[in-house]
Amino acid sequence: MGLFARDTGQLSQSAWTVSELTAYIRELFAIDYRLQDLEVSGEISNFTRARSGHLYFTLKDAGAQIKCVMWRSAAERLFFQPEEGDAVVANGRISVYEAGGVYQLYVEHMQPAGRGNLAVAFEQLKQRLADEGLFEAAHKKPIPLTPRKIGIVTSADAAALRDILNVLNRRYPLVSVLIAPTLVQGADAPPQIVRALQWLDGRSDIDTIIVARGGGSIEDLWAFNDERVARAIFAAQHPIITGVGHETDFTIADFVADQRAPTPSAAAELATPDIEEIRPLLQGYAAMLRADMDDLIRQKRWQVQTLARALTHLSPQARLDNNRQRLDVTSARLDRALTSQLVRVRNRLAVAEVGLTAVSPLATLSRGYAIVRHQDGRLVRAAAEVAAGEGLTIQVADGQFTVEVSE
Q1: Do the Cβ atoms of 292 and 299 come closer than 8 Å?
Q2: Tell me: the pLDDT tens digits for 269-294?
Q3: Closest by alpha carbon to 41, among 89, 111, 112?
Q4: Cα–Cα nearest to 265, from 137, 135, 154, 143
């Protein structure tokens, strides 16, 4: 049951606890619609940015002061950097910080007070980023002369995109385009622009990135004065061309970019060469290449002919033919030598055969002689070597036979 159900007529009989009283006061604030959405102007003092990203400060004027809290989610949407002594207008609601027993303004939106507050925020951020060196020429990357693919960060249905595509198609139809659509106006635009930039920058097939938006008021262009967008452009690895607004419009993104164009169409012109201007140059290069190629072909043809002649002269085929013929001659010579050698051998054999025949025991046997052997094969050289009854083997010219000695 809420604290409003308490019988306030009985307060004298039972004391409130501090927590009950503080909660009751908080609910009183909560039911007063005038305190739930109001604007308060004053000067910032006791400004503190916590490590968590929350802002704590006091708004004061000549007669009073009020404590203020701005949570990180709201502080990240600020387009300027609050500082001690700034005059601001804060929008939010009143509630009670129960642990401290104080009422506070919980700020949802805040802007510099007075006329030209956006210009003040612009100059503040510009000066701070310049002091950090984000605008220095040493950080600017060169724009490729003949890009193959260009990334575009802009609204998908914006006239600026149509202008860019028309210029690219007219000037350099050889280039391809990759579009990263995003909001380009409003509180949600900066984080979307950052994501689109980072997505294109993470690709390896992109040569140049164009960040563009058509003209508008300073409020319309304010997304390109956002610190998150500026730092994303500075951190990009690919060269970035900005074409935001009209020729007289300058944004923080223009100062950080590698090159600033006065309009989206001009950004497309800066990103590409004019094909009509480079056509004669390309035709001249083509003629030079053809002439060089013809010379090279003539040189190579002469070299091939020279090498062919040398190859014919040094070809192993001629050596093989010579060796084959030399082999045939040598083979014939070897055949003749072998034949002559065989004849000589046959002649020597014939002579030897005649000599052997003359001394051969077979020749003696053919004349009527015989060879007598014992049964064990020993020659019988004298009659005394045999005994009566012994068997002998008699060999004659055409064979042999066995006899027995009778006496």
Answers
A1: no
A2: 999 999 888 888 778 888 899 999 99
A3: 89
A4: 154
Q: Which amino acid belongs to residue 228?
A: R
Residues 6+ apart with CB under 8 A from 43: 59, 60, 61, 85, 86, 87, 88
Whether the CB-CB separation of 161 and 152 falls below 8 Å is answered with: yes
Give how far Cα 115 sits from Cα of 121, 198, 199, 306, Å: 12, 35, 38, 88
SS3 (DSSP) at 259: strand
User: For the segment 323-357, what is each residue's pLDDT rounded down to a tens digit?
Assistant: 877 888 888 888 888 898 898 888 888 888 777 77
CA distance 57 to 12: 38
**Per the structure block, which two tokens stand in for 112?**
């510099």
pLDDT confidence of residue 216: 82
Percentage of the chain surpassing pLDDT 90?
44
Q: What pLDDT sits at residue 83?
A: 85
Q: Which residue has the tokens 């004659």?
A: 396
Residue closest to 244 by CA, chosen among 229, 222, 263: 263
Can you list the domains of the chain with their CATH numbers?
3-114 (2.40.50.140), 125-273 (3.40.50.261), 362-404 (no CATH)
Phi-psi label, residue 149: left if phi above 0, alpha if psi -120 to 50, beta otherwise: beta
Of 282, 273, 219, residue with least CA distance to 251:
219
Terminal CA-CA length for the chain: 170
Contact 372, 397 (CB under 8 A): no
Give, in order, the Cα–Cα distances in Å from 194 to each of 81, 188, 231, 233, 258: 19, 11, 9, 8, 16
Check residue 379 and report its DSSP letter. B
Amino acid identity, position 396: V
Phi, psi at 243, each rounded to 5° = -140, 80
